[in-house]
Specification:
The chain has 297 residues and is mainly β. Helix content is 0%, strand content 44%. The model is unreliable at 185-191 (pLDDT under 50). This is Galactose oxidase. It holds the Pfam family Kelch_KLHDC2_KLHL20_DRC7.
Amino acid sequence: MSVKVISPSETTPSPRVGATMSAIGNRLYLFGGRGGKEMTPLQSHLYSFDTEKATTTWQVVEAKSGKLPAPRSFHAMAASDSDIYVFGGCPTKGRLNDLHKFSLSSGAWSVLPTPPITPRGGAAMAYHGNRLYIHGGFTGKEESDLVIYDTTTGEWVQTLPSSANAPGARSVHAIVPLASSSSSSSSFSNSAESDRLLVLFGEGNPSHLGHEGAGEFWGDVWMATLPKSSSSLKGEDGRLPVHYEKVTLEAAESAQDNLPCPRGWFQALPWNGNVVLSGGLAANNTRLNDMYLLSTA
């Protein structure tokens, strides 16, 4: 495996932290962030980078219509094959719980229905099968809720763990969608098709130094299984059941028991049926430059 360093140019986005990136086709998209310790976010520019062009330069994606999201950092971003979604995060003061969509085909920003959760930063969000999943985040305390947005109906669905066995509250973590499967959970019909998500690591308690220090991090991985049908399988309270199961990590024989340490602020994404995990912040406040391939077989 080799790493290619792309040198900055005059079009490269300014240095930042708390930004987000998603990929659609051969292009990378970057949004938001802040330039330093101050909680002043940068402008709401959406940048794109064409990975197939020899020029290796960034460009600002100009919106043709709609209102740009307010500047923010520590938000969440996810993408379908044609749209980019931005949720929540931190403006100069306070926190947000708004949801925005940018359509690549029309070049338009639009505001989507507000999710039924409190404003927060550091939430995890993923797109899979016409659904947006938002999990956890920091509202002044760590959260553990999971909500789903159906992009075809425009409706939000809240969920409820099917047992007390569930991930602890966390932020600056990741959720990664996996291939759908036939459900075996007792919370809904065994014949129902189900979606599966991995919930990975994250911060369980913040540092007293705020963003200048490391908090207490989780080192666990959970599998969340929930029905694909949001309408017919809701409970009496209108929430969708979700079955959580803790995943035991095992090192490959060649890895000499080298497992990912507890961390937050890292990257994780699906790749060829597996999950790639990289970097982040460790509990001793050091920045990590490692990379792991988690097999889901």
